[in-house]
Specification:
Oligomer: heterodimer
Largest interface: A-B, 24 and 20 residues
Strand content of chain A: under 5%
Largest sheet of chain B: 5 strands, parallel
Shape of chain B: globular
Largest sheet of chain A: none
Helix content of chain A: over 70%
């Protein structure tokens, strides 16, 4: 059935997201928090994460472009970004954040700029994948209730 | 699940009520736990909120520390526990932690994506009761209720101990002593001696064994006389008998002097041991001024902090320490100066100490200090030297060192540990704990200088904020000046263990600082551990804070001098005292001014929120209680002190006054926390009753 197939696809994609290291345990916690009272909890959180991340990324960009670079501020922003990305289980993104913070504490501007590119890249990849995945989830849910 | 389903709704009365009773935990417990979660990260905040709701907790979320503080202040009794992020834009999480510890004495859990040892340690030293690494898992949140209960239980335990179980305590103490001393060869000797001393002390008997002596109020004047006599004799030669003769105060007994002396010695030790300017100790004590306040507080704070920092101090230990320290002092009047006895015992131990130069100091310092010294701890000599005064160090170390080590020298903890180390810990544990502490010399100044709110002790340590408070419990207010009085007690927090403040007074009795009434009990009360009452006196506990930290605040606050022209002030004072106490307990003495500022700020805000009518109510309540007249007296002095409190610059005096005042305000509850309507459960009632009984 369509629904079954959809659900199967959802399950497969979900598994691959975890297997490939894009998502981690906290994401499962989010899923578990989703219930009848909050049927779209995961989507809500992810959306919130996107908007918050966009803000932080912008701040970091700005800080990286300013001269001289304020490493403390950079670290602060990245700390926040790392915090929220780890909260939703964005594993690869979080890892890149860690790398960035290492460069930051070493006040290595080059390293920061480079690793920030990585952060943005991973963030973009994850975002795309999550959007696809969550859309599938929605479809499967809708088909279920249909 | 709480009835209040609304998001972020403040705890409802029903849920509050459900949480009030320590002993009778509601069936749905821990459902309904009122949590305030603070995090500037919106994603995390929402996730946490959802997780906590799923745990059936009642959640209020804040994305700014200032908002959280305001919320807490408006709703003093409205929360059971706070979870806060470390990195926040408007206020550092640790600062918030301090504020909360000072003002509300709630258990606070810190969280951060940062899992660096340094940061976690900071949580410990600042008194967080736990530290969670983000991303926070639900399993971690499910169990946060333990911190609330633990805090309460510790408070209760102290209360009970201080209340009627004097015998038991005595026994416990003795056994603790025995354990402690067992590490030394003279274990048996010590134990027996201690027991004997304890008996003497406990029964407060000397020649007139059958008489139950009325509690002595160590007024400022009296204390001045005492100090003068001690100075005249020389601190090392000052024995109770001679002091008594010199003082020539009719009605004063040798026992009174002995217990007071014990506290005084602890105070001195603490002063010398604690701060870098250890040597000021005697001087500072002589002029009980702000300085003493500082070091003492730092000591106290230090100890806890150190312990916490050491990471070795399990929460339990800290709590124990604090409880012990606090409990001891207040508690049992029957055991006025266990320390004295211990001193002897411990001095024996001194030689055993492996401290290097510290030893000298040890010897010089009160024998009492030796208590800790004697503990066969692993303290390194260098550690001692760091602290400057061995005696104090030991004390402090002990407090720091409260380790969970099982041996217990809980006795020592009790007695020595200024911080009210709870008995279960060994002194050696203390010492060991102390080691790490001292090893980090910088830490000392750190704690001193910072108004650290040790909310309970190290992360993961369940010591709750109470521990902090223990330290605060200044058992000794020898200084004639208000400030000194305040300072002293604070410093003496550690002394508490030994000095059951015979002044029966009950918390409120602590004599008005302004009046210079120095009450031992008061001091212990000062410890005001807001959240954590080591319990010596029921009253103290009541005053300080019963199992329910949030309630305590009310208690302290409630006392208000109706006479006070500015009722608001009165409330403020109370708040201040409460705050002060809290601040003290966290051993933030060092940041006296800061603390004062904090306190005053907190109090002012607290005061602002109180209704003008409160003072009146408080007074009324006070009057309605069959409280000793001394309470009334205190009231007056409170009023006087109040004026001082409102000075912008809060000196230690102010803080002390605040504390003292708070002490006084045990029974009456502020309007908002109307005593009658107080959500406190029977326990508090019992406490009050107990207090009243002790007054008799």
């Amino acid at each position: 059935m369509d629904r079954n197939r959809l659900q199967h696809q959802v399950a497969c994609m979900r598994r691959s997201l975890f297997d490939q290291g894009y998502l981690d345990e906290p994401f499962i916690q989010l899923e578990e928090l989703q219930d009848d009272a909050n049927p779209n909890f995961v989507q809500e959180i992810v959306t919130l994460f996107y908007s918050d991340s966009a803000r932080l990324i912008q701040n970091i960009e700005h800080a990286l472009n300013s001269r001289p670079i304020d490493f403390d501020k950079l670290d602060d922003y990245m700390h926040q970004f790392k915090g929220s990305s780890s909260s939703i289980g964005a594993k690869k993104v979080t890892n890149e954040c860690t790398v960035f913070r290492e460069y930051c504490s070493a006040e290595n501007a080059e390293g920061c700029i480079r690793s920030f590119q990585q952060v943005k890249q991973e963030y973009a990849i994850l975002r795309r994948k999550l959007e696809v995945y969550l859309q599938m989830v929605r479809q499967a849910a809708v088909s279920r209730t249909a | 699940m709480n009835s209040s389903g609304g998001k972020g709704s403040m705890s409802t009365a029903s849920s509050s009520a459900a949480w009030k009773a320590v002993d009778s935990v509601p069936d749905q417990f821990p459902a309904g736990l009122r949590v305030l979660v603070v995090d500037d990260d919106p994603t995390c905040l929402i996730i946490l909120e959802k997780m906590l709701r799923t745990c059936s907790y009642e959640v209020t979320k804040c994305n700014r520390a200032e908002t959280a503080l305001a919320t807490l202040r408006e709703n003093k009794n409205g929360f059971d526990i706070v979870i806060s992020d470390v990195h926040m834009p408007d206020m550092d999480g640790f600062k918030l932690l301090e504020h909360i510890g000072l003002e509300m004495d709630l258990p606070v859990i810190m969280m951060s994506a940062d899992d660096g040892k340094h940061v976690v340690m900071k949580g410990v030293t600042h008194g967080a009761c736990d530290y969670l690494i983000k991303p926070v898992r639900m399993e971690a949140l499910k169990n946060i209720w333990q911190h609330v209960i633990r805090k309460r239980k510790n408070g209760w335990k102290d209360l009970e101990q201080s209340g009627s179980v004097e015998e038991g305590d005595r026994q416990q103490k003795q056994s603790e002593d025995a354990e402690y001393s067992s590490s030394a060869n003279e274990g048996n000797w010590k134990s027996s001696k201690k027991r004997k001393d304890d008996d003497d002390e406990t029964e407060d008997r000397d020649d007139t064994s059958t008489l139950k002596k009325p509690r002595v109020v160590w007024s400022v004047e009296l204390h001045q006389q005492f100090v003068a006599a001690v100075n005249q004799l020389g601190i090392d030669k000052a024995v109770p008998k001679k002091i008594l003769e010199l003082m020539n105060v009719p009605g004063l007994t040798r026992e009174n002097v002995a217990s007071h002396l014990q506290k005084y010695r602890l105070y001195l030790r603490r002063l010398s041991g604690v701060s870098p300017h250890a040597n000021n100790l005697n001087n500072s004590f002589m002029n009980p001024q702000d300085e003493t306040f500082g070091p003492l507080s730092s000591v106290n704070g230090l100890d806890l902090q150190a312990l916490a920092a050491g990471g070795q101090l399990p929460a339990q230990c800290l709590a124990t320490l604090q409880a012990a320290a606090l409990g001891r002092s207040t508690a049992k009047s029957s055991i006025p100066m266990p320390l004295v006895d211990q001193r002897n015992i411990f001095s024996f131990e001194n030689p055993k100490l492996r401290f290097g130069e510290g030893q000298q100091q040890l010897m010089n310092n009160n024998k009492q200090v030796n208590l800790l010294h004697g503990i066969p701890t692993t303290m390194e000599p260098k550690q001692l030297t760091t602290s400057q005064s061995i005696g104090n160090i030991n004390m402090q170390v002990a407090s720091h060192g409260v380790q969970s080590s099982q041996n217990n020298s809980s006795l020592i903890n009790m007695q020595v540990a200024p911080h009210g180390v709870q008995s279960s810990q060994n002194n050696s544990a203390l010492m060991q704990m102390g080691q790490p502490q001292f090893a980090h010399a910088p830490r000392l100044p750190l704690s001193v200088g910072q108004p650290i709110i040790s909310n309970g002790v190290a992360a993961n340590v369940s010591t709750q904020n109470g521990i902090r408070e223990n330290i605060r419990a200044p058992g000794y207010n020898p200084v004639p000046q208000t400030s000194s009085m305040l300072n002293f007690p604070m410093n003496h927090a550690s002394e508490l263990p030994g000095n059951s403040f015979p002044l029966g007074s009950t918390p409120g009795m602590s004599g008005c600082i302004s009046k210079g009434t120095f009450q031992e009990d008061f001091n212990s009360e000062i410890k005001g551990s807001v959240g954590f009452m080591p319990s010596y006196d029921i009253f103290n506990d009541l005053n300080q804070h019963k199992p329910q930290s949030w309630e305590l605040q009310n208690v302290g606050m409630t006392f208000d001098d109706s006479r006070h022209s500015n009722s608001l002030q009165g409330n403020l004072d109370l708040s201040q005292s409460v705050l002060v106490q809290q601040g003290f307990s966290s051993g933030q003495m060092s940041g006296q001014n800061r603390n004062a500022a904090l306190v005053s700020k907190a109090m002012l805000s607290a005061g602002d929120s109180t209704e003008p009518g409160n003072p009146l109510n408080a007074s009324q309540h006070l009057n309605s209680l069959p409280v000793d007249n001394t309470i009334r007296v205190k009231t007056e002095s409170v009023a006087d002190v109040t004026d001082n409190l409102f000075i912008d610059h809060f000196g230690q005096e102010d803080l002390m006054s605040a504390l003292l005042k708070q002490q006084q305000g045990i029974a009456p509850a502020e309007n908002e926390f109307d005593f009658d309507g107080y959500s406190l459960d029977n326990i508090q009632q019992d406490q009050i009753n107990g207090i009243i009984r002790t007054d008799e």
